[in-house]
């Protein structure tokens, strides 16, 4: 979520008033804002997307709740020591959190372990351990519409009789100390991005958030006029018309068997009715196609922790496979491929398959990704129910990612096309009229230059390096992962360095290359990549032959509040994942909206950015998905590229020989060995096209006016990538609610009788 103060002032239309009031107290608002900690309660793009979606849902007047876990420790703070990443705990609540309100009156029990007892009256889950879920509510204000939604985060609490209700007369002190075991559930965020780690505590977290949330939703449904009761029992027929639940990846997949358990075991609905309601309630968004990221929980673990849920999953699977068998008799391989249970070795539950079978809609997050989902990853399911599969291209909130972080540009745009674009970003197309307006071109360039000077001062303060603000700011910020190919950027840096040294008199377009992002603590290769970048920076930044022509900076502890500083100052945005691996990306959109040009592959949302702006207004290079597939078919041989490309050979040899690690020449052997022998993401295959494309970038940068005109064309084409557009599509195609741009009256004005009713009562 990042910081809340400035975003709240902007959405409430109070920023100028607050700035002025604080100034009159002899304080500086910007200094105050820097004191607030980031709320870093998720990993990379997935968590930030949810935050943008909350802003858009409130702005569109949807009655929507964001549910999650109130981690005591969020994503770790990254320190760079001697070039290596070191993790520190993110004690973000140390000074309290003024934005949250604990709601003990809505505390709910969550059960674990135990056993299942079957009887004539149905199944009973008994002898469980109970953990309490305490909700904390954070307000989510819409933009200038007097609407405030709620983000409800659950914290784990031990019940007061924890470990004392047993025949545990003995050790009272130990029993109280053991309360920590229960409360560890919400202690810390697992810091993996695009990687599945099948730990028991993680499964506990996933079930914890799901069980508390579903009880909360059902309590709210029963309290509403829709939860009409037939004598005693609630009638749930209208449940899917009143409630829509969107599964953000498979992490909350246990919600499907949990809702079935509530309907069948507790509310005593017949299975078929319960299943129909469940399917119509859930929809699933897939966020990655990397096999190592797909959640596959061992059956043994689920059986121990959630025995009843395993039985329900088996029953769902049995009925699912019976249906497949009736359509495709004797096709045992199809049954194996489509089963929720993977046999062979340890039996595992494929959570993505559970989500597809248990949802009425499945979507990818960019056109190309949704195609891959349909035709490759889940092709058997798409063949069965093609109408279930959709695309919803990701977006970003223009409030945080333009108004808040780049007020200079936001104001310049407002002068030309009015202020309405903030709520309807498609209006940015009006900027096409000003592409040839010399004054506007100069003003856009001036705002960018001011942002660069400000960020250069920040870098000089934090990193003690002198930055040339007229150099091209070439920025690559995102989680560190092999598929995102920070290594390819690193090879380009080394290539530029070698070119400068080979011919120091030759014209070289000066660059400041900024790379930043966190590596998962257990991801050895990602940590080596960080060390390599820092080792290269050490050499480049201290070579007198290079001077101010080339500087390399690794940005420490990349997070939302740092993104808000670096993105407005960027000239060149690096989006260079191997085609077919980045589901969408959202950083790409933030850079586009903030006046950077993109160098990128035809991957994720880059494809649609090129479609919107015209491919000639992005620097597109490298293999397409088809080329990658073809290369896989032929077999990728890294050695071929190394032998054919002298500059690539020189760069790799320098890494291998210890040129960048003279005290430990073999330091980067693992990296080099990977690049030659098991590089799944084919860095060498795109190196030549990438370097050539970078030459075109430098050439255009020399012509400031032509560069800025291309920038304006990009900003004018960025409207599609508002999360408002994304959420409108979810609302209409999946949740079946109508967004409203009605501004409800402020609380100090009296309302008409009927004005508190929403046009459609569904809550998402």
From TrEMBL:
Positions bearing N6-(pyridoxal phosphate)lysine: 590
Chain positions covered by the region annotation Disordered? 738-764
Molecular function terms, GO-annotated = glycogen phosphorylase activity; pyridoxal phosphate binding
Name one matching Pfam family.
Answer: Phosphorylase
Q: Which domain of life is it from?
A: Eukaryota
What does the entry give for GO biological process?
Answer: glycogen catabolic process
Q: Which UniProt keywords apply?
A: Allosteric enzyme, Carbohydrate metabolism, Glycogen metabolism, Glycosyltransferase, Phosphoprotein, Pyridoxal phosphate, Transferase
State the reactions this protein catalyses.
[(1->4)-alpha-D-glucosyl](n) + phosphate = [(1->4)-alpha-D-glucosyl](n-1) + alpha-D-glucose 1-phosphate
What is the top EC class of this enzyme, as a single word?
transferase
What EC number(s) would the UniProt record show? 2.4.1.1
Q: Which GO terms describe its cellular component?
A: cytoplasm
CDD domains cross-referenced by the UniProt entry: GT35_Glycogen_Phosphorylase
Cofactor requirements of the protein:
pyridoxal 5'-phosphate
Query: Which proteins does it associate with, and in what oligomeric form?
Result: Homodimer; enzymatically active. Interacts with PPP1R3B; recruits the phosphatase PP1 which dephosphorylates and inactivates PYGL/glycogen phosphorylase.
- Record family assignment: Belongs to the glycogen phosphorylase family.
Q: Describe its function.
A: Allosteric enzyme that catalyzes the rate-limiting step in glycogen catabolism, the phosphorolytic cleavage of glycogen to produce glucose-1-phosphate, and plays a central role in maintaining cellular and organismal glucose homeostasis.
Record protein name field: Alpha-1,4 glucan phosphorylase
Q: Which gene encodes it?
A: Pygl
